[in-house]
Amino acid sequence: MFPEPFSPKLSRRNILRTAAQGFGAVALEHLLHRDMLAAARVNPLAAKPAHLPAKAKSVIFLFMVGAPSQIDIYDPKPALKKFAGQKLPESYGKVSSQFTQGDTPLLPSPWEFKQHGQSGLPVSSLMPHTARFVDDICFVRSFYTESVVHAPAMYQVHSGRILPGFPSMGSWVTYGLGSESENLPAYVVMPQPEGTPEGGTPCWSAGFLPAVYQGTLLRSGANPILHLKPPEGMTPARQRKALDLLQQWNEIDTEPDDSEMAARISAYELAFRMQSHAPEAVDLTSESEATKKLYGLDQAKTRDFGTRCLLARRMVERGVRFVQLYSGGGPVSIQWDAHSHLVDNHEKMCSLTDQPVAALLQDLKSRGLLDSTLVIWGSEFGRLPMSQGGNGRDHNPHGYTMWFAGGGVKGGQAIGETDELGVRAVGERYHMRDFHATMLRLLGLEQTKLWYLHNGRNEKLTDFGGKVIEKVIA
Amino acid sequence: MVIRQISKRYYAGALLITAGVLFAGTDRPVDKEESLVASRRGYWAFKTPVRPATPAVNSDWARTPIDAFILSALEAKKLAPSPAAGRAQLLRRVTLDLTGLPPTPEEVAAFLRDNSADAYEKVVDRLLASSHYGERWALRWLDVVRYADTNGFETDAVRPQAWRYRDYVTHAFNNDKPYDRFLREQIAGDELWSGDREAVIASGFNRLGPAHIVGGVQDQELNRQEQLTEMAGAIGPVYLGLTVGCARCHNHKFDPILQADYYRLQAIYAGTQFKEIEIATPDQKLAYEQAKKAYEASLKPLKDQIAAIEAPFREALRKEKTARLDPKLRAALEIPKEQRNAEQKLLAKDAEDQVKSTWDEVLAAMPPAERDRRAVIRKQFVALELTAPDPSPAAYAVANMEKEVPPTHILQVGDYKHKLGVVEPGFLKVLVHNDTAVPAAAAGRRSSLANWLADPRHPLTARVMVNRIWQFRMGTGLVATPNDFGVLGQRPTNQKLLDWLAVEFVEKGWSVKTMDRMIVLSSVYRQGTHGNAASAQIDPDNKLYWRMNRRRLEGEIIRDNVLAVAGTLNPKQGGKPVFVPIEKEVYDLIFSEGEPDNLWPVTPDPAEHTRRSLYLLNKRSVRLPLLANFDQPDTMTSCPVRPVSTHSLQSLSLFNSDFMNRQAEAFAARLRRESGGNASRQVRRAFQLSLARDPSPAELKLAKSFLLHAPLSDFCLTLLNRNEFVYVP
């Protein structure tokens, strides 16, 4: 924080009043400087200290919409071969899903698994690029969730409840930690261009938290944020002039110690700064050819998701607190929801994302950002080992894999397991609230200290409280 | 918000109460629970309010009993009220508060000219009689009851008849429907006044919550539990001001609300089902049937043309996929349907699934020329879809089941798979003002709940509503947590005033307008909003109302004011919700696995696009950015107090959006129309229209020097963004 050059009581208001009375033009730079000083006092997104010391400062959550099949990617089930075409043994009990009732034949994974890295962790041939980073990754193979239906399960992984209307992870984190960025939104969201995930905007909404904590949609191109640019015809000079007049009105309306009015003044200045900073933040022309190639921007397949991964790195580099990134959304053909044609679907979806995800890890690492960035890969649930429609798989909320890497994470390990056929998590099972408690802890946030009073309850991301998965933490 | 310290006594009570959870339904712990509940009946909010004596205050300031209560509380803390607001400011405040629209310059001038003693009373009575009064109230009430026009969740379909409930609410406030009647119509209008169209529409209240409607294997019992949770769950926050919902999984941790109480309340709804109740006349029905037939017939040729263009590609895809089928599946598919055995039927079903193509696969398989040809027809098809006739009028309502009402079980941790004992329908055991029994039949259960709540002796009903009225007008409630009068909620800052208002409310026939009038005529309401360092030291949160609270306008009301000031507001009231044009970025947020056209059928008549925000389609999963950025609630749960956050996305939508810039241009055109080409006159008129006052000489000078080098519309845009414009003074 800068020292204050003079008493805040000697306000801009007086300076402006003088100006308004005709004593000459206002020095804009001076005003801007004062704004930066005032920002911390009136900015609800000013960075706040964590509850506990922590390595991770920001989060990139890579969300695979529609549910990848864990038993075909990260959680090998060799025993399935033995049972191919047979029904699930009765000892497993009844397993209902959204479309099937557990009585369809078991389908072994069509892909080969190999061990990788020093840790020797298995990854299937679907993810050759990510496989190179297993020593940085901590897989948790025993997550479970409560709904077999996409939207409620998405709400649960994003906000802790199977209902919409609760603040999303990113909202809680920005509510708890504020933002390191002066010029960009604290929490950005990048959905699949073809369409939104099934859960829609409640996945990144602030729920009952103030709107300032909502996720902001970010796109590449000249207009990365909605309403960032004035309509055509309004030149920057003209806009600045109008903004100056507005700020003069607002100064007149603002008593020296009126932080609510001052917050509006700062918000307009930040909006104006965002107009130049956001397009710069999403402008990839300054990236080297090697970097672009790394993310696969030179290939049609990987260009889209690669761009979003590269944008994610640029965001955390610029102090954005939480980046929510989606692969999949809209039409079935661009989701991971392989109810039929598992092979076509997963080969396609993995080929769109594998190289960009690996590039993100490598790039963060080489820039020294991986230590302070928590990267999470996951989805709303996994898929069943039984087939659907002969060559697909239905939803499996009973046991599935997500992984953590980066800030404070102990890589090169797999925690928890599912049963022999990959139907359910067994032993150390982890609920979504455990997932959230762990994510918060990695950021130095205590789940019980992060609450907001709503309709008579101290609402928390983890509601009744989750177990921090201690083994994840380095 | 700071939570009040909870005394050890309550914690001890909480522990004892929760200890009984697993034994609910057996004898001894239940007795214990009930005696614990009985021991907590002394809590202030569980006792029927008694009218306190109006404090004697020796001051001309106190115009009304309200003022006497406030002044005496202020004096006890050595505080004094603030000077009254200026007359123009007061007029702007009361007009925004009672109608949500700004006063016209002519109204301001007339008020400033009127030197009669009752000039302000006359204005208040004019505003209370305005039909915009009900619109203003409806916006607030709809927050509390979590009204939306769609179901929520992934499909988020429109509820095409729900708007009738919204209009019902507007009318109810405009007609000053007694609140006890308003409440009873909403909970049980279909039972109590089945022949009264309004009352039946009102019962739609019971199904305003989000509803999860999705395909696949259905768990009927789970679906029913979700409905019951939404129906019964609304009673606590909306009418009781108690967090009854907390007792769904366990006895309430802080308030004496048993888990059994929650399920007794749920049992009241056990015989209630969602129903569209027909209210169409035979002519309307016939007209609809004919219009629907004509509409479908008009779509058919286009549908057929599209199908014809797609057919060869669909067929080719099917062939290609059939060729790739597992031989066993292909063989099964080749067997004629009627000759397939059981196993072959299963295989053929799988095969059918595998050879199907989605719309985007078909499009991808087409050469560009064909795709373009299809696009032309599809565009016509989509345009035609906009002419779909409105459904025949029906009430979005509830009705009682004809079959026997299923029993209601207490559910362990709210899980329907873990049923505990059976409970009969009934009310919270802690409230004993009325011991009416609830009938065993479906019919009458909700009526008894409604009558139990509307009983003048009910300790909470009137208090909760007068607190909302007070909160609406004063900015904060006397109980700052309007949906929670329990132990975890805030204590009333002036319980005597709250109780006095509650008794007065009931005695004045539950008239909301009477209470509104009393509040806005009080000296408390007429104070200025300026801070005062000495008072702020004693009461920083203004809990005792030593000044008026400055309040930010809701996003909806900001938009309404922009339209009113620009002269573009279409004042038409009621009717089906309007789809305003939205940005592509917002459109893209609508989830669809199908072809993403016509997901937001913009209302064709542009005059509809400038109607009040109350009438804009409120879609749960896709919010309008201007409104959402200003903390519009998400309608998933009851919202008693909107948060007020300030951030840059607000600035961006208010300064840069097409909507705002178009309105600024309309505002400028209006100024030119009404004030000619003279800059001083334009500026003066602009201030009068937007801020209900003249510019100061300094402001006029600033504006005029700005206008030397910038267009009038830019100046207009600055006024519409100004702090003073978005706050109630």
Task: Please characterize this protein's 3D structure.
The complex is a heterodimer of chains A (474) and B (729). Chain A is of the alpha/beta class. In chain A, 32% of the residues lie in helices and 14% in strands. Chain A is built from twelve helices and 16 strands. In chain A, a hairpin with a 6-residue loop joins strand 13 and strand 14 (425-426). The radius of gyration of chain A is 24 Å and the shape is globular. The two termini of chain A are 32 Å apart. Mean pLDDT of chain A is 90; it is low at 1-41. Chain B is mainly α and 729 residues long. In chain B, helix 14 crosses helix 17 (359-365), helix 14 runs antiparallel to helix 18 (368-385) and helix 24 packs parallel to helix 28 (658-675). Chain B is globular. Residues 1-27 of chain B have low confidence and may be disordered. At the A-B interface, helix 5, strand 6, helix 7 and helix 8 of A face helix 16, helix 17, helix 26, helix 27 and helix 30 of B.
Strand-helix topology:
The complex is a heterodimer of chains A (474) and B (729).
Chain A: H1 12-20, H2 28-42, E1 58-64, H3 79-82, E2 113-116, E3 121-124, H4 128-131, E4 137-143, H5 150-159, H6 169-177, E5 187-190, E6 216-217, H7 236-252, H8 259-282, H9 289-294, H10 300-317, E7 322-327, H11 342-366, E8 373-378, E9 382-383, E10 395-396, E11 400-406, E12 413-415, E13 417-418, E14 425-426, H12 432-442, E15 451-454, E16 457-460
Parallel strand pairs in A: 1-7, 1-8, 4-12, 5-6, 5-7
Antiparallel strand pairs in A: 2-3, 4-11, 8-11, 9-10, 13-14, 15-16
Chain B: H1 8-19, H2 27-39, H3 65-76, H4 87-99, H5 105-113, H6 119-129, H7 132-144, H8 163-174, H9 179-192, H10 197-202, H11 220-233, H12 235-240, H13 259-268, E1 272-278, H14 282-323, H15 327-334, H16 342-355, H17 359-365, H18 368-385, E2 394-400, E3 408-411, E4 419-423, H19 445-454, H20 461-474, H21 495-507, H22 512-521, H23 533-538, E5 551-552, H24 555-566, H25 584-587, H26 625-629, H27 648-656, H28 658-675, H29 679-691, H30 697-707, H31 712-721, H32 723-726, E6 727-728
Antiparallel strand pairs in B: 1-2, 3-4, 5-6
Helix pairs in contact in B: 4-6, 6-22, 7-8, 9-19, 11-13, 14-17, 14-18, 15-16, 20-21, 20-22, 24-28, 27-28, 28-29, 28-31, 29-30
